[in-house]
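Example 3.2
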Amino acid sequence: MTTAGVGSTPSALDLLFGPDTDAAETLAGKILSPGGDQNLGRALAYLPEMTRRVAVQEAATTAAALLKVNLTDVLVHGWREHRDIVSTARRTLAAPGSTELLSLATHEVTMDKRPSINVLVDGHRVATLELGLSVVFDINGVLLGIGGGRLTAVHSGRCEITGTLAVQGTDLLVKRGRLALPGVFSLRRGIRLLPVGEYPVEGDGPSAPWWLATGSGPPPDDRTRGSR
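Structure, written as C-alpha cells:
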C-alpha cells in the first residue's frame, strides 16, 4: 500500500488486504483452508458444512469490520505521546498566535489490538475467534507545523508501515506499506495534541476522531505507543 492522496484515509484493512479485495471472503477462505486455524476448525467440525461455512463467513465479516482502523488517527495518537511534540504544543498554546516548526528524527509508533469474536449457533457459543492486529510505523524526515497546541501542517515525512494480523495466536498475514505523510491528514482546523482540558473553552470543538478530540485515549482494547 502506497498512499499519498490528499484526504485519503488508509485503514489497517487496506494495508492487509488491499483496497480492491473482499477482505471478509479472503479471511474466511484462509480460516477454512486445510492450512487454516485448526483449533477453530475443530470447534466447528461437528456442524453441518453449510452452517460451518456461514458461521465462518459471519465471523470473518465481523473481523474485517474491526480492521477498519484509520492509520492516520493511530499515528496522530502516537504523536500525542511524543515528548518533543507535546512540549511544542504546550509552548504554542501558551503563546496565542505562535507557530513552530518541529523536525523529528527517525522514530516509531506502534499499535496493538486484540479483539475477539464469539461464534454463536442457535444462541449458543460454539467457538471464539481471537484476533491480533499489530501495526508498526517507522517514520523519518518529518517536519511538523504546530500552532495553538494543534497539529496544523505536515510539511514532509515518510512512513513505512508493517501490519500483522494473527488469528488464534498465529500470524496469518504480514503486509508492508508506505505513507507519504504530506496530504494524508485533514488539517483545516488542526488536530489537538494535548488533553482537552488544557485548551480554552471557546472554539474548542472536536476536529478529530472522538478519542483524539477528548484526550481520553483510544478504546480499552487498543494499546498505542509513541516513542519519546
